[in-house]
């Protein structure tokens, strides 16, 4: 850990417990800072609070005292999920106190170079792909951020021989000061989390944090097929490495129907790739570019491309049964993600969809329903999705109690060569505690067949 004493003697308020708050508190306390943790959750039965107190850390639970900032803190480190409208955050900013998320701590202490990966979609798949490429290539990667262990915990243990592959959300990137990844990846930019950020521009500016502190000694890999992302790329001081699906490009990484090209030269055949979908090809290009820049051997990259079939719950290939292939895309909690999933296949598809009713329209899916031969609808939006499917001319429409029931009803509708796809286009919270729980039930139901 570099600059281990940089927080020694500082007064730091950590706002919010959870994993990131506990990790940041422990790190800062061990570094000699005077740490106070404040969390709105009740005191009774709070095991995280008890654990921190056992280390000698001051913890205040049950709400945010009006005078909490009167103690004169040097820094506030907040949980990414806490909005900037929170009264403590508003007051801290008004007083000129820096407000960070824990990825800023990770950046300040890491001896290992950091690859920071963000995007509206695809960042988890890109992060996982790159991790496997580097791992097979003996580059000693460590995975961190949204997808893995809290970033500052990973950075605390990392050495110069490691590479940290860090998935960063817009929430985390809003709370940075000097965060500067050696390689930054921005997969794509679509409207998301507007309830948190307020506007599309504010969301995009938060994402731009992935590259805003980079210099000419760093690399910025970005989606050159999106004009609005190119606008932000133009502001970056890093060496720009665009990726594109529109045919061979003279610089960066690109692809056509036959090849992936690196700086305009053939690099690997598309036929090697196992992971389906144009959106996943974008993720592949981004991860491959980073792996090449980090000196990863081509054989290691090809090995991953020829074997990787998806992150769990994200276009995950589950099983082939009597010629029918099952894909778990439970992470598709909006129409944008389901649109990408449907576009990945050009064979007859039985679509399992539906979930929490947020008043959304499914109209965006209409151009992508041509290969859907049947729909099995679940959840609060089952009726609404069934009506939408009927308006698309789909004749076979069934209702199911849950995902397990949907699998049982979907299988008899298939013949060899068909695909059964769980891609709900809705959040899971009407019936499941998480999209992971929903996806796990799908996998279990497939295995029961």
UniProtKB/TrEMBL annotation:
Catalytic activity, as annotated: UDP-N-acetyl-alpha-D-muramoyl-L-alanine + D-glutamate + ATP = UDP-N-acetyl-alpha-D-muramoyl-L-alanyl-D-glutamate + ADP + phosphate + H(+)
Database matches in InterPro entries: Mur-like_cat_sf, Mur_ligase_C, Mur_ligase_C_dom_sf, Mur_ligase_cen, MurD
Gene3D superfamilies with a match to the protein in the record: Mur ligase, C-terminal domain, Mur-like, catalytic domain, NAD(P)-binding Rossmann-like Domain
A GO term for molecular function: UDP-N-acetylmuramoylalanine-D-glutamate ligase activity
Domain (Mur ligase C-terminal) ranges: 313-426
Pfam families for the chain: Mur_ligase_C, Mur_ligase_M, MurD-like_N
Pathway(s) this gene product operates in, as recorded in its UniProt entry: Cell wall biogenesis; peptidoglycan biosynthesis
Location of the protein in the cell: Cytoplasm
Tree of life domain: Bacteria
UniProt main location, coarse: cytoplasm
Keyword Cytoplasm: yes
Record's keyword annotation contains ATP-binding: yes
Positions contributing to ATP binding: 119-125
EC number: 6.3.2.9
Mur ligase central domain mapped to chain residues: 117-291
Similarity comment: family membership: Belongs to the MurCDEF family.
General function of this protein: Cell wall formation. Catalyzes the addition of glutamate to the nucleotide precursor UDP-N-acetylmuramoyl-L-alanine (UMA).
Name of the protein in question: UDP-N-acetylmuramoylalanine--D-glutamate ligase
Organism: Sporosarcina psychrophila
Source taxonomy: Bacteria, Bacillati, Bacillota, Bacilli, Bacillales
């Amino acid at each position: 850990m570099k600059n281990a004493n940089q927080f020694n003697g500082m007064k730091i308020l950590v706002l919010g417990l959870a994993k990131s708050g506990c990790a940041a508190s422990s790190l800062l306390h061990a570094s000699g800072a005077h740490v106070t943790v404040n969390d709105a959750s009740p005191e009774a039965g709070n095991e995280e609070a008890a654990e921190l107190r056992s280390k000698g850390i001051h913890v205040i639970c049950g709400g945010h005292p009006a005078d909490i900032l009167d103690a004169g803190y040097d820094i506030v480190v907040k949980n990414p999920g806490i909005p900037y409208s929170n009264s403590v955050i508003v007051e801290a900013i008004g007083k000129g106190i820096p407000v960070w998320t824990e990825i800023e701590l990770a950046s300040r202490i890491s001896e290992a170079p950091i690859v920071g990966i963000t995007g509206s979609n695809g960042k988890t798949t890109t992060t996982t792909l790159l991790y496997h490429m580097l791992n097979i290539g003996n580059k000693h990667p460590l995975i961190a951020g949204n997808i893995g262990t809290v970033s500052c915990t990973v950075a605390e243990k990392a050495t110069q021989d490691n590479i940290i592959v860090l998935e960063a959300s817009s929430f985390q990137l809003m709370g940075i000061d000097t965060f500067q990844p050696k390689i930054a990846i921005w997969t794509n930019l679509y409207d998301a989390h507007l309830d948190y950020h307020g506007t599309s521009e504010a969301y995009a500016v938060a994402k731009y944090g992935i590259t805003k502190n980079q210099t000419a000694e760093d690399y910025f890999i970005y989606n050159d097929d999106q004009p609005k992302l190119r606008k932000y790329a133009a502001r970056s001081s890093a060496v720009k490495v665009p990726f594109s699906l529109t045919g061979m490009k003279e610089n960066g990484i690109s692809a056509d129907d036959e090849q992936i090209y690196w700086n305009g030269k053939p690099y690997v055949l598309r036929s090697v790739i196992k992971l389906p979908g144009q959106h996943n090809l974008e993720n592949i290009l981004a991860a491959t570019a980073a792996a090449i820049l980090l000196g990863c051997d081509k054989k290691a990259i090809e090995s991953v491309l020829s074997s990787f079939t998806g992150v769990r719950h994200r276009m995950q290939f589950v099983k082939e049964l009597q010629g029918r292939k099952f894909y778990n895309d439970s992470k598709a909690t909006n129409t944008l993600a389901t649109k990408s999933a449907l576009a990945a296949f050009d064979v007859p598809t039985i679509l399992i969809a539906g979930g929490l009713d947020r008043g959304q329209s499914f109209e965006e899916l209409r151009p992508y329903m041509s290969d859907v031969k049947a729909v099995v609808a679940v959840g609060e939006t089952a009726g609404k999705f069934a009506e939408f499917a009927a308006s698309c001319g789909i004749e076979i429409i069934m209702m199911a109690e849950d995902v397990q029931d949907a699998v049982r009803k979907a299988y008899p509708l298939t013949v060899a060569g068909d695909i059964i796809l769980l891609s709900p286009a809705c959040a899971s919270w009407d019936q499941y505690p998480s999209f992971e729980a929903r996806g796990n039930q799908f996998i279990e139901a497939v295995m029961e067949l």
